[in-house]
Design goal:
Elements (H helix, E strand, L loop, with lengths): L4 H9 L11 E4 L4 E7 L5 E6 L7 E2 L1 E3 L4 E7 L6 E7 L5 E4 L15 E2 L11 H9 L8 E5 L1 H4 L10 H15 L3 E4 L28 H13 L3 E6 L3 E2 L20 H4 E2 L4 E3 L5 H17 L4 E4 L2 H5 L20 H17 L4 E4 L21 E3 L1 H12 L10 H4 L1 H4 L5 E5 L11 H4 L4 H17 L3 E5 L24 H19 L13 E5 L7 E7 L6 E7 L5 E8 L3 E8 L15 E4 L9 E7 L4 E9 L1
Parallel strand pairs: 10-11, 10-20, 11-12, 12-16, 16-17, 17-18, 18-19, 19-20
Antiparallel strand pairs: 1-2, 2-6, 3-4, 3-7, 5-6, 7-8, 7-9, 13-15, 14-15, 21-22, 22-23, 23-28, 24-27, 25-26, 25-28
Helix pairs in contact: 4-5, 7-9, 14-15
Length: 624
């Protein structure tokens, strides 16, 4: 390690140290010395305690006026546990975690673990080179969201290791045809039920499944299999525990000075002071650590709305900034800075916002006044679509605006269309259980809804278990119900999802122009009375397009006419009512001929039978 601690401390204190993990925390040197550095600006004294010194204080020394305390010690073995002993101005002693720890002991303990430097030999250069060359906005992006602790478990309820996860997950993702996995937070956390969103460690992989080496091997193997890796990251708030970051040196340190702003009542957490320079250094360094040291392809930033608004939390109605509105100005500035710095160093890394309001310009460039994210989850579309499909089909024609409203704002941002974990937990029911009717009709609805997702402009995300229609809602304390796949209907639903995902990847019009207005042709989107819909996804080449037709009621529509841009021959890609997928059609219409009969603004059209509670994807083969 070669650095000047005073100079590094200066950059840290000005908010410009974006790799502060290189000098803060614990570092084992080749010469047998172990260095401990920690930022505690208002501490009276700081010491390190651990099982290497019998948990007695080994004093650190203050480095000038940087607020950083430094110590060098011999005979500290890798694997030792440690904490910082901080004495505040009132002579009260506090045992605190290392904010830069790269590993913690297994819960319920929260002592940091002394680890050596990362010495990973990577084998994903081909993936990274391909990532740099391609524009993901014009490529297929179909994300499988999963929670590592409950995707699979051993029969005795114990966790899989990272190595075991790799062995099972990689062939499954390849088989199913997803392009990326998105892992719910893998940073260290104490409470299982928080799913990782109440983070303890911002530089530490959770010890539940193994150590950092195991995680890096998982990422490496996923990349070698041409699967991208995204991870949820929580820079807005941190765990409430008093031995963690809260009042770290005995005074307000990482959280807001105003306790009303610091206290996140809704989530039982503390909000980071996003306007403080040192907090910015800390958080941006955390992002860089995961992107650079762990080769992640991107971060899905959790709870962005909480960082954008002063009154987002319970009991904070009426909070205003100096300009008289409810925006969190320093939060906005932090997010802009974060995205700017990340994209300067890694222009191909994906920064994704989970943002639930209508805040304008989330995915606009910072220089244009935006926040600078690459993508934003379209939570409005998700809620409206689920509300529509949960409804008895008898009443859907009166609520067709739940589907069509998204057409009004679909190009306002660069959206990812999600069916996420939040919608299948805590009594909300699984996607399958949300669908109305008997078991057959539930599957028919689910197939149609997933087809609607894959055909709609925007990138895609679905949560684990939905691909085969698991009936039980998600439970974080146990494995998915893989036994479901012994049921023929669940098995056929999985086969359908696999086929649909491959159809998506193989057909450029379904992803090539997701964010271009000419990528969507509204051929028949206003027939609320029949509860049917048709639109065309247009590729860059004018003769490349996919026709999507949907029937949202269990009434077969014979002689259903579809308007298309050209006369000629067309072929079936997907019929959700194919018996192979669990439907009722044993004989499919696979060929269609369009003549020059104008229909719904298109110069040509063809007639087909639109299956009851079904969807069709069709593409041209020979145009006149």
């Amino acid at each position: 390690m070669k650095y000047n601690l005073a100079e590094s401390g200066y950059l840290f204190n000005t908010g410009k140290s974006y790799k502060s993990y290189e000098f803060l925390g614990c570092h084992v040197l080749k010469n047998g010395i172990t260095i401990f550095n920690v930022w505690a600006p208002h501490a009276k004294s700081v010491a390190v305690v651990g099982d290497f010194n019998g948990w007695h204080d080994s004093e650190l020394t203050a480095i000038d006026t940087t607020g950083i305390w430094h110590g060098e010690f011999r005979d500290v073995e890798i694997g030792s546990l440690y904490k910082f002993s901080i004495t505040d101005s009132n002579n009260e002693r506090h045992l605190k975690i290392d904010p830069y720890a790269r590993e913690f002991e297994k819960k319920p303990g929260d002592a940091a673990v002394v680890v050596g430097p990362i010495n990973k030999k990577w084998h994903d250069s081909l993936w990274l080179a391909r990532r740099k060359r391609s524009d993901i906005k014009k490529r297929p992006l179909n994300i499988y969201e999963l929670h590592l602790g409950s995707w699979r478990r051993h029969e005795d309820g114990s966790y899989y290791t990272y190595s075991e996860i790799a062995t099972e997950l990689i062939p499954y993702i390849k088989k199913m045809g997803y392009t990326h996995v998105e892992l719910m937070p893998v940073m260290e956390h104490l409470l299982d039920a928080s799913w990782g969103y109440q983070q303890l460690g911002y530089f530490a992989i959770t010890s539940r499944f193994g150590n950092i080496d195991g995680f890096l091997d998982l990422v490496d193997k996923l990349h070698q299999a041409n699967i991208g890796v995204l991870v949820d990251w929580v820079p807005g708030h941190f765990i409430r525990n008093y031995d963690a970051l809260y009042q770290y040196d005995g005074t307000i340190t990482y959280e807001y000075q105003d306790e009303n702003r610091a206290d996140n009542r809704g989530w039982g957490a503390w909000n980071f002071d996003l306007g403080k320079a040192q907090v910015r250094s800390f958080l941006i360094s955390s992002a860089f650590y995961w992107l650079e040291q762990c080769h992640l392809d991107g971060l899905r930033v959790d709870s962005v709305s909480n960082m954008l608004y002063l009154d987002y939390d319970i009991g904070k109605e009426g909070l205003k900034n100096d300009q008289g509105d409810n925006r969190n100005l320093e939060g906005i500035e932090f997010l802009q800075k974060l995205n700017q710095i990340v994209h300067e160093e890694h222009p191909d890394a994906l920064m994704i916002a989970e943002e639930s309001s209508a805040f304008a310009g989330v995915t606009n460039a910072v220089e244009d006044g935006g926040l600078g994210f690459d993508f934003k989850w379209n939570l409005g579309w998700m809620h409206d679509t689920l509300k529509f499909f949960e409804m008895d089909p008898l009443y859907r024609h009166d609520h067709f605006d739940l589907l069509t409203f998204a057409f009004v704002y679909m190009y306002n941002e660069k959206f990812i269309m999600p069916f996420s974990h939040d919608e299948v937990v805590h009594g909300k029911k699984s996607l399958m259980h949300k669908m109305p009717g008997d078991r057959y009709n539930q599957f028919a609805n689910l197939r149609t809804m997933i087809t609607y997702l894959l055909a709609f402009p925007g990138k895609k995300l679905t949560f684990m278990g939905s691909e085969w229609g698991q009936f039980l809602e998600w439970r974080d304390w146990t494995s998915l119900e893989w036994v479901d796949l012994k049921d023929p209907l669940n098995n056929k639903m999985q086969k359908f999802t696999q086929t649909l995902n491959q159809t998506y990847r193989d057909n450029k019009p379904l992803w090539e122009q997701d964010y271009e207005s000419n990528g969507m042709i509204y051929s028949n989107t206003d027939d609320a009375q029949s509860s049917t819909m048709g639109f065309i996804r247009q590729g860059k080449r004018k003769h490349q397009f996919v026709v999507a037709a949907f029937n949202f009621v269990p009434v077969e529509r014979k002689d259903y006419r579809i308007g298309v841009p050209y006369a000629g021959e067309y072929e079936l890609l997907i019929n959700t009512e194919d018996k192979t997928f669990g439907g009722t059609w044993t004989k499919l219409e696979t060929k269609f001929v369009a003549d020059k009969t104008p229909f719904h603004g298109q110069p040509a059209s063809f007639i087909l039978t639109l299956p009851a509670m079904g969807a069709l994807l069709i593409r041209p083969t020979k145009l006149k």
